[in-house]
Amino acid sequence: MGEKNILGNWHRETADVDLLHEQIMSSLVSRVYDYVILIDINEKNMFVDYDNTGVKWEWTKEFHQYSEARHKMARHYIFSEDKEEYLNNSDVLLIKNKLAKSDEYMFTCRLVDEQGDIHNKLFHHYYLNREKGYVIATMEDKTSLLGRDTLTGEYNHRGFIEAAQQLIRDEQRKEEFAILYINLRGFKAVNDVFGSDGGDRALRRVCRALKRSELRPLLVGRVNADHFACLVDRRCIREDILTNLLHQTYVVNNRSMELFGICGIYLIGADERAGDVGHMCDGARMALHYIEDEYVKPFIYFDEKMRKKYRERTDTLSELKNAMDNGEFKVFYQPVYNVKTKRVASAEALIRWERSNGEMVSPGAFVPVLEDSGRISQMDLFVERSVISFLEERHREGKHIVPVSINMSRMDFYDKKMITAVLQDISNTTVPIDYTRFEVTETAYSSVAETNKSALAEFKNIGIKFYLDDFGSGYSSFSTLRDYDFDVVKLDRGFIQKIGTASKANGIIRSIIEMTHSIGAQVVAEGAETEEQVEFLTTCGCDFIQGFFFSKPLCMEDFEKLLDARA
């Protein structure tokens, strides 16, 4: 039978069965189904959807005669004493009559699985389109629902732990087990762009991609929000497969978004098979914090040193909360000097943590913790408001001020409340708009540009200047300059430290400065520490220099003294 005739206009409108699947799934309530089918009760045909999570149904993603399918169901799956009742209750004319009187029709029946276990199933029918006669039919297991995720139908956290524990402890299993813990980065942006329904569909797609991958997972679970876990045979882990799997393109209505995941891997030793799977999952999750560059190598193997470091990070996070409450964070200002005049032209605002005992904590020890915990936007907003307050007070008193640039995390652009708050602060301040500027790294820009470019546009539209920070430390430097109109490019200190060490380094720096000027942007060189470096940058036409040669970062009081002296 030709597919075109099976579901009439419905199928002509949705020739892509993946799209048909999405439209079916969008009509469902959030439950776990063994199968979902779409029945044309007028033509007595059906489409078998393919989000199987229970019964092994080989007709998925296909169109079939409804009568043939239900008789096969009765022969192979329905408990012998319930077969006649099932055939009577699932008759298409009966379903049509029941739905003519009510919005839904349900009946229960017992089913026998491949292991011989009996399950009580709820068969649920309702119209997807009453006028065309399209009915959604689902089968839901009422006896073993607690371990399943209601959105994807895969295991939830509890179910995954229990099922994995059972497999790993089975002495008859010959696999060399490993647990993969996967986190989708910046998934909130998917919900922002496509809505919650689009986000739900994306999560289901991720589950299907994992299940169908060459990793051949034994178990898949959505264990928390946008976090997934897989139990695999470690011999199936290939780094190229894993890298490709962790980068997916999600397309809805001709709009696309890049999905990036990171993965922690816990290899289960032969002597650990009786151990606590929850502890192993925690280890795989902890490993995520030690991925150095998620775009180059988005996965990492767990080792026990990580657990120790993770505890230290947890302790730091606890300290951070107390420090924020106690006002231990201070904004420092590192002056940026005009190369020609050798005078302070601007400054960069930097966060510093000064403990109550006077001890200074390196930003490298707490900024990554803030980023991982999702509190970096709270800190960035604190810096922004401190800077505006500082500039406002001096401006009100008629004192000399210079522009101050503030660092923004990529996560800031996904936080609508954060963006709204910053825009309101800038709109309400008495300080001219040119005195508040923002810095973004190449990595942050690449991430934001893919999904939330409008946030950058909002800032540019009201005249705010943007700096491209750490230029040269990323992997898409020139495309970043091509795709966005940055006002200032900050050369990464790694470039500056190589001045004088090789003619190639000098040539690259000179060329970058010339190229940046050719597109109408200015250049700040970061990290200049020697007279030789400053002299070379001056001969190259660099506009500004920021580094210890001129000044280290200063507390607010010392920076004020510098401004007053330079005025």
**Sequence stretches where pLDDT stays below 50 over 5 or more residues:** 1-8, 10-15, 52-56
- Largest β sheet strand count, sense and barrel closure: 8 strands, mixed, barrel
Radius of gyration over all CA atoms, rounded: 30 Å
Mean model confidence by pLDDT: 84
Can you describe this structure?
The protein has 567 residues and is an alpha/beta fold. It is 42% helix and 24% strand. It has 21 helices and 21 strands. The strands form three sheets. The protein has an eight-stranded mixed beta barrel, surrounded by four helices. It has a six-stranded antiparallel sheet with strand order 3-2-1-6-5-4. A hairpin with a 5-residue loop joins strand 13 and strand 14. Helix 13 packs parallel to helix 14 and helix 15 crosses helix 16. It is elongated and about 95 Å long. The N terminus is likely disordered.
Short description:
With 567 residues, the chain is of the alpha/beta class. Helices cover 42% and strands 24% of the residues. An 8-stranded mixed β-barrel has the order 13-14-16-17-18-19-20-21, surrounded by 4 helices. Strands 3-2-1-6-5-4 form a 6-stranded antiparallel beta sheet. Strands 7, 8, 9, 10, 11 and 12 form a 6-stranded mixed beta sheet that branches.
Record keyword descriptors for this entry.
alpha/beta; 42% helix; 567 residues; single chain; six-stranded antiparallel beta sheet
Give me the secondary-structure topology:
Blueprint: H1 3-6, H2 8-13, H3 17-26, E1 35-40, E2 45-48, E3 62-65, H4 66-76, H5 83-89, H6 92-101, E4 104-112, E5 118-129, E6 134-141, H7 157-168, E7 177-185, H8 188-212, E8 219-224, E9 227-233, H9 239-245, E10 247-252, E11 255-267, H10 277-287, E12 299-301, H11 304-325, E13 329-338, E14 344-354, E15 360-361, H12 363-373, H13 376-396, E16 404-407, H14 416-428, E17 436-441, H15 442-451, H16 453-461, E18 466-471, H17 477-483, E19 488-491, H18 493-496, H19 503-518, E20 522-526, H20 531-539, E21 544-546, H21 556-566
Parallel strand pairs: 11-12, 14-16, 16-17, 17-18, 18-19, 19-20, 20-21
Antiparallel strand pairs: 1-2, 1-6, 2-3, 4-5, 5-6, 7-9, 7-11, 8-9, 10-11, 13-14, 13-21, 14-15
Helix pairs in contact: 4-5, 11-12, 13-14, 15-16
